[in-house]
Amino acid sequence: MPDVGSLAPPLDWNDVRFFLAVARSRTLARAAAALGVDQTTVGRRIGALESRLRVALFKRGAEGFQVSAAGQGVLRAAERMEEAALELRSQVAGERSETVATVRIATTESLAEAFVLPAVAALHQTHPRITAVVMTGWSRVDLRKGDADLAVRLARPTDPRLAGRKLAELSLRLYASRAFVEANGMPRTLSGQPLIAYEESVSQTGRHPFAHAPMDGGRLAVLGNSHHVLVCAAEQGLGIVQLPAYIGEASAKLVRVLPEVEADYTVWLVVPQANRRIAAIRAVSEAIAAAFKAARAAPTRGTRP
Predict the structure, then answer these.
(1) What is the CATH number of the domain that holds 176?
(2) Which of 94, 128, 143 is the last residue of a domain?
(3) Rounded to whole angstroms, how far apart are CA atoms 117 and 176?
(4) Residue 191 and residue 172: Cα distance in Å, rounded?
(5) What's the CA gap between 256 and 45, in Å, rounded?
(6) Which tens digit of pLDDT belongs to each residue from 91-103?
(7) pLDDT tens digits along 248-270
(8) Which of 265, 177, 253, 185 is nearest to 221 (CA)?
(9) What is the number of structural domains in the chain?
(10) Are 50 and 23 a contacting pair, CB within 8 Å?
(11) Could you give the count of Cα atoms lying within 13 Å of 238 in the half-sphere of its Cβ?
């Protein structure tokens, strides 16, 4: 494959953007939608890039566009170009005042409600012109590619290009409604019990929806993709649910069951190294850290019989 750096004229960054979009989406149509252009434009830009590099970057097949063996080297170089472009944006933004900025925060729905949004409320007292875009969901965004500016997540970063800050040690516990316990007695095991769980935790390999407690003989009664649905189902007496303690203890209708079953986990604030220079992102990061600190200091409802 020719040395990309030796080509004249130099590669057009826009062509590289088109190449990355097709490599990630696998179709011209999805790449076009992501880039906000028509499909013909995407195909033309890919063709121009292949002509310039004198290699076939993709293998076209029934499953869409797959990066070719020759294209893999181009893909690695393109990702480095993308990271450099993002770092340049960060450095420029870091020179500006934080008084007007948009900061995108990726996290889960429950962490957003319990910690991130209170942090944003406190932040607006001193930085009212920072706009927070709070992105929730199970899918992990790629901070290195600029999908978000920072993340509050449950996994410690291992990539040296990402900085991690420990926010809190939290616990997962099991809960049921008072009415459920009164009708069925205090459960001693999950066997024979109706269970309520996140659909993702049941379907994805490696995740366990009940703090690793044996589920043999249990029956999945309700599955949901929102903690609101799970809490409501448990409050309605539909079964036993695993919840973060900060959610379960907040409901007056729920009581803790199987208190010996508990799973601890760590929450991390993750920021690309380049973004740490940006004043607005520093301000948001400090506000989120303060919200977790305040939550740890606040009294909890505690476990009730």
Answers:
(1) 3.40.190.290
(2) 94
(3) 27
(4) 19
(5) 59
(6) 555 555 444 589 9
(7) 999 999 999 999 999 999 999 99
(8) 177
(9) 3
(10) no
(11) 18
Say if residues 211 and 174 touch (Cβ distance below 8 Å). Answer: yes
Q: What is the DSSP letter of 115?
A: I
Quote the CA–CA distance of 119 and 294 in Å, as a whole number. Answer: 10
Query: For residue 260, which phi and psi values (nearest 5 degrees)?
Result: -75, -15
Contact of 192 with 181, CB cutoff 8 Å: no
Pick from 81, 86, 13: nearest CA to 278: 86
The two structure tokens encoding residue 72: 């893999």
CB 150 within 8 A of CB 143: yes
Question: Other CB atoms closer than 10 Å to residue 138's CB: what's the count?
Answer: 12
- Give CA–CA dist 197/202, Å, rounded: 7
Same structural domain for residues 125 and 257?
no
Alpha-helical segments (H) within the chain: 13-25, 28-35, 39-53, 69-94, 109-111, 117-126, 178-184, 199-203, 227-235, 245-248, 279-297
Terminal CA-CA length for the chain:
70
Residue 201 lies in a domain: yes
* Residue ranges for the chain with pLDDT beneath 70: 1-11, 84, 86-100, 138-139, 203-208, 298-305
Calculate the CA 305 to chain-centre distance: 35
Residue that finishes a domain, picked among 62, 78, 94: 94
Residue 175 sits in the same domain as residue 162: no
